[in-house]
Amino acid sequence: MDVKELLVKGLCSTPKYIDMSCRYDKQGSIYDDQCQDIEDFYHYKAEEAIMRCNAKDAALQLKTPLRLFDLGCGSTTKSQYLINELLANKVNVEYTPIDVSKDFLQHACETLKNIYGNRLKVDPIAGDFMNVIPQIGKYRGRKVLLWLSGLQCFPLDTQHQLLSKISESMEGDDSLLMTADITQDKAVIEKAYLDFDDSKPFAKLYTNGVHVANRELGGNIDLSQFILEGRHVEDKDVSRASYNQVWLRSLCNQSYYLEEVGKNVTFEEGEKLHLYSGNGISHKYTIPQLENALASVKLRVLKKWDNGNSVLLLSTRENEL
Ligand SMILES: C[S@@+](CC[C@H](N)C(=O)[O-])C[C@H]1O[C@@H](n2cnc3c(N)ncnc32)[C@H](O)[C@@H]1O
C-alpha cells in the first residue's frame, strides 16, 4: 500500500488514524534524527551506546563474506559502527540500506559516499518492508539483516508479520542483528516520550503525518484545532510488550475536504486522531518477550548485549529437522 492509500484508509477508519510510517518523509526523518539531542530521550543515547560499545564483538560473530541489509536505515549513523568494524576486519562488505523515505535514503547514500568512497559498495532499495523483505530472500549469498530501532515502531500484529517475513528470507548461517528498547520504568518512558513541548522535535515528528496527509491528499487539516495527548500502557504478558499511544484530540467539530481524493474527513469535538495503527507505538520489551517473539518465527537468539535500556540481539534461523 503506498502512502496515499495508507492515509486514506486511516482517515476513513473508525477510529481515525495516521499510520506511523506516514510521518517519515524527508522532514520527518530530519525530526527523527534531531530527537537524539533531547536530554530526557534515553532511547537514542542507549541505542547509540549499544552499537558503539558492541559493534566490534558483534562483527566478530558474523560469518563472512556477507551482504548487509539495513532495514529502515535512517541516517545510518548507528549502522556505521558495524560497517567500520567489518571494514577494519578487511571484510568485503556489500551494503544495502533500505528505507521507505526515498529522499532521506538518497541523502544517507550521499553521506556514505563521502565517508567511505570506494571502500563500501552501496546498493540502496527504497520501499516498504512488506515488499522489500521478500526481495532480500532471493539474494543467494550470506545475508546479515540489520534492524536498529525498528521492531518497536510497529503494532504487535505487524511486528509478528515482519519478523515472519524476515525469518522466511533467511537460511543457513544468515543472521539477524537487531536492537530493541528494554526500558521498563514508566516514569522514565513518560518523560522521554510524552512531554509534548511544541518546540521539541518529538511533537513535530508525531504530527508530521498530518503535514504529509495535507500534502499527499490535498487537505488543510489545521493542527491548531487539535491537542497532542498520549499514554504509556504496561503489558508484561510474555507474548506481548508494553507500548505508547499518541493521538491528536479535536478541539471542536471540524471538517476538511481532501481535494486529491475527493473525500471529506470530519472530526467531532473530543474525537481522537490516533498517530499510530493497531495497538500502539514505541514498544518496550522484557528479554523473555523478545525471545518469545523471535522463537515464534523460528529465530533463535545466539548472543545478546544489554545496557539496561537497549539490547542488541544476534539471531539465526532454527535448523529444520
Ligand atoms: C526509528 S527510525 C530508525 C532509523 C535507524 N535504523 C536508526 O536506528 O537510527 C525508523 C526508520 O524506519 C523507516 N521505516 C518506517 N516504516 C518503514 C517501512 N514500513 N518500510 C521501510 N522503512 C520504514 C523510517 O523511515 C525510519 O528511517
- The number of distinct β-strands equals 15
Q: For the record, give the distance between the C-alpha atoms at the N and C termini, rounded to a whole number.
A: 36 Å
- According to CATH, the fold-level topology of the largest domain is Rossmann fold
Small molecules in complex = S-adenosylmethionine
Number of helices: 10
Q: What portion of residues belong to β-strands?
A: 25-35%
Q: In the CATH hierarchy, what is the architecture of the largest domain at level 2?
A: 3-Layer(aba) Sandwich
How would you spell out the order of helices and strands?
A: HEHHEHEHEEHEHEHHEEEEEEHEE
Instruction: Write down the domain tally.
Output: 2
- What oligomeric assembly is this protein in? single chain
Helix content: 25-40%
**Gyration radius over CA:** 20 Å
Stretches where pLDDT falls below 50 for ≥5 residues?
Answer: none
For the record, the CATH class of the largest domain is: Alpha Beta
Please identify the structural class as seen in this structure. alpha/beta
In CATH terms, the superfamily of the largest domain is Vaccinia Virus protein VP39
Average residue-wise pLDDT: 95
Bulk shape: globular
Domain Histidine-specific methyltransferase SAM-dependent: 5-310
GO molecular function, one term: methyltransferase activity
Keywords: Methyltransferase, Transferase
GO biological process, one term: methylation
